[in-house]
Amino acid sequence: MPSTPADDLNTLAAFLGRRDELHSSDMLILFGGCPPAGWDLAARFVRDGLAERLLLVGGEGHTTAALRSRVPAYSGATEADLMAAYLAGEHGITDVLLERESTNCGTNITYAESTLRAAGLAPRSIILMQDASMQLRMDAVFRHVWRLGAPRVSNYAGTRPRVAGRDGELVFAGAAPWAMDHWISLLMGEIPRLAPDGYGPAGKNFLAHVDIPDEVLAAHTRLARRFAVREPKPAGG
User: Fold this and answer.
1) Helix H or strand E encompassing 89
2) Residue 150 neighbours by CB under 8 Å, 6+ apart
3) What is the distance of C-alpha 65 from the center of its chain?
């Protein structure tokens, strides 16, 4: 049976939204850009002992306004502050580290490392948590630029959205992380970013190499005939 657009979008999402088998870790780094469902998941990991400490990373960037609209009961000058306010109010978690300056994937990682250095911390194990569309890119940036020891790294996307077709329309099978058009745009923009001729290792020396399976490339090609593909932003975007 031929793949449907929903099938192809789910193929991209499953590839990009990496979730590793988890072990107890010294540090969970929760990045701005992750929807609030991921904040709840991070809180559960802390409560369950999967993460000893929590570092919230994010200044004010292109996702900040959308995230504020999702949690109107809370406010924060930066995404890190917004996540901190939410975690304190909803989960009673206040023992967090904050990184408030970064505004893209590149500085998310480098400033997170600087924050840990300033706190005198060198985690031996780290969980990275980001929006499903950006999880794999965050891992690739981490592998390329991290210099604080050689921690064991686990990836766990904060959400795992699935799309279905219903009455000729694309809908989310569960909770919607973003508006559908925005979700499609996020997924379609990631494959060019991660490709060797994107702004990765053969482009701007920004990411570690990422192997993209043939079935993912094929799904992206089919979708590109139907949906616009965002051009990669300059390195760090």
Assistant:
1) helix 79-91
2) none
3) 17
Select from 144, 147, 62 the least CA-distant residue to 103: 62
Q: Which long-range contacts (CB under 8 A, 24 or more apart) does 169-178 make?
A: 170/5, 170/6, 170/9, 175/37, 177/35, 177/37, 177/131, 177/132, 178/35, 178/66
Number of residues that make up the chain: 237
Nearest Cα to 44, choosing from 5, 15, 87?
87
Q: Please give the domain boundaries of the chain with CATH numbers for all domains.
A: 5-14+160-224 (1.10.3620.10), 18-155 (3.40.50.620)
23, two tokens: 């072990």
The pairing of strands 25-31 and 125-129 is parallel
pTM confidence score: 0.92
In this predicted structure, the answer to whether residue 203 has a pLDDT above a threshold of 50 is no
Residue 29 three-state SS: strand
User: Mapping DSSP to helix (H, G, I), strand (E, B) and coil, where does residue 39 land?
Assistant: helix
pLDDT (tens digit, 9 = 90+) per residue, 107-159?
999 999 999 999 999 999 999 999 999 999 999 999 999 999 999 999 999 99
